[in-house]
Structure prediction request, 199 residues.
Amino acid sequence: MAPFATPPIRPFAIELDRSALTLRPEGPVLTRRLSDLAGLFLDTAAWRAAVEDGDPVVYTVSSSPVPESPAELPQSITTIRPGDVGGELNFTKGHIHPRPEGEIYLGLDGEGGLLMFDGTDHVFLELSRDRVGYIPPGWAHRSINTGEADYSFLAVYPGGAGHDYGWVLEHGFGARVYAGSAGPELRPFGHPRPEPAPR
Ligand code: PAN
Ligand code: ZN
Prediction:
């Protein structure tokens, strides 16, 4: 057997509960509130007002017990609540993998999409139920709920890839997604970055 940085875990089955939108057995569950998304929405005043007015949960990430270790393939289900901040639709923080490695998303429920940015080009993929999105190495990725109900998707990613959130604060995504009168509207950058959030 090839040498491993950490001993690989034993084979086991993972159940995807389509109604609860969880993985079983379940590993860590992460909850992100609006206050965790400081400096990401363009309309800082609307963001601050919503944080002061109850700081709602924006998304949860429910993982299987597969560890984030090199050579493992962890999985998680992200569920993003519907809503917007100053018209900008709810999203995940977004990150780039510091070790440039690919990732697979599978749309599970609701309406949403995947915004990717390589520092120059951006791509938005609509990713509803049963569509698979491929994130190539070197592309930052963020998910957006474009509907009126929860939006959920499964992610499978290399356990040694890491998650760099600072890159997104620095470079953005090349575009933002807004609630338009005829559905979601992708607005390419050109507009300013939000003011830095107070510490
Ligand atoms: C996903 C994301 C998950 C939450 O599992 O981590 O959707 O998004 P943020 O990590 O940007 O908050 C993934 O892309 N893992 O690599
Ligand atoms: Zn990722």
The radius of gyration is 17 Å. The chain has a mean pLDDT of 93. The chain is about 10% helix and 35% strand. Residues 44-52 form the longest helix (9 residues).
